[in-house]
Amino acid sequence: MRFNSDEELLNKLSAELEILDQHYADVAPPSLLELEQLIAAEAIRRVKRQRRELLIFSIVALLLLSVVLSILNSAPVLFWGLQALFPLAALGSLGVARIRLRREDAEE
């Protein structure tokens, strides 16, 4: 849609803004009591969610701890082997990454 002058554009925009004002004129802000109830309900919901997340975290932590302790009890050699393997793998991957970075810097 093309307008021949700025005046036409301004009139059209003003008319559209009037329509918006009329459309939203009957919207009233919530009362203070409603806002307080909304905030209280949100606080209760947040506390319940935090408790549920803490419960899930605790259950998962206990499950992992029981698995680790059962492995330690039933196969201590396997447990200590895994305890040695993971740090060595992490250190090895860091060493490989550092060597690659040095090679890339040397090529530049």
What does this structure look like?
There is one protein chain. The chain is mostly helical and 108 residues long. It is built from three helices and no strands. The chain has a domain at 75-108. The radius of gyration is 33 Å and the shape is flat.
Measured as a percent range, the helix fraction is over 70%
Q: Ranges with pLDDT <50 over ≥5 residues?
A: none
Beta percentage is under 5%
The coarse overall form would be flat
Number of helices: 3
**In whole angstroms, how far apart are the ends?**
56 Å
Element-level helix/strand string: HHH
Strand count: 0
Integer-rounded radius of gyration: 33 Å
Class computed from helices, strands and strand pairing? mainly alpha
